[in-house]
TrEMBL record:
Name of the protein in question: Glutamine amidotransferase
GO molecular function: glyoxalase III activity; transferase activity
Annotated organism of origin: Aquimarina aggregata
Keyword match Transmembrane: yes
GO cellular component assignments: cytoplasm
Amino acid sequence: MFKKYKALKWILISVTSIVILLLLFGWWFMSLLPPKEMYANVSKTQVSDLPYLSQNVISSRGKILAIVTSTDKMGDTDKKTGYELTELSRAYYVFEANGFEVDIASPLGGTPPIVIDDEDMGAFDFAFLNDSIAQHKIKHTIAVKDVNTEAYEAIFFVGGKGAMFDFPNNKDIQKVVRELHQDNKVIGAVCHGPAALVNVTLDNGRPLLENKTVSGFTNKEELLLISDAREIFPFLLQDGLVAKGARFNEGTMYLENISHDNNLVTGQNPWSTWILAETMIKQLGYTPKYREITAEENAIRVLQMYEDHGVDKAKQLIEQICEIDRKPLARQLLAMHSVVGVMRGDISRFYNLIGLTAYAKKKTKDIAY
């Protein structure tokens, strides 16, 4: 048969070879990631297990209000959404560790919908899920209409794509932001959280965002993951912020980036949450409590070094983190960014980041975080 159909034979051989190569590459790629058992006990983390929270406790400095979305679906689609757990949990514990009690509100009050990205979960995120006090607050959020702004030193808007639907036109949110801003209180927002600021008008009739430098989830970040985002969302966040006179500070895709404009602190994406919350503490007049940098943050440092200075400098940083400082590094984040390179059609970036992931595996000691 194959003598008669030589072309068919070579097609079958070629297809089989490609399949085998893809399977081998997939096996090798997965071997670069940390073993799952490394994180087996992280899901059981309690607040008492975190020295950042349990040691050198700071006395009360007041209260901060966190606001999350009440929206569980993206527009008219069946795509589920809600608030991003990591964006709430990490800021929540930075505020708590620095002496601020945190209340949680939402447009509708009650229990808001949640988004949990398993691959992003760390000790602080699991601690939040296991924290009876935090869980009572998130399951019984205050309706924004009932918020007394005089009780808070700052406000923080948590991201999650649901925020694009119920933050911008909510009159109660606009009132809370306006009152706090005009009382010189600190306002923070991360990822899609800055949607809360888009339609805020001050008593002088001017937009809050006018001539303010801000960050938020970028058009590029949004459209890479959701190609029809312009049809699903009422607007793209970057466009909405710019339309109200903001100076948009766009950092590297999916890497840490914040903007600090006096009492307004905004972050580009979930990976910006730690530094954003600590910048809010600084703006409140305090030196943030010492915190061990997480494995994820170390990976972000490596990725930013690669962006700014190339592969060799990124390798040097990996050596510094893993061999000299003996700190954890989340190489799965490096691998994820290599996949983003493929999605962007940047094969050289994919190749370089896969190489850095393999180098990190060689240099790192797997430490759960």
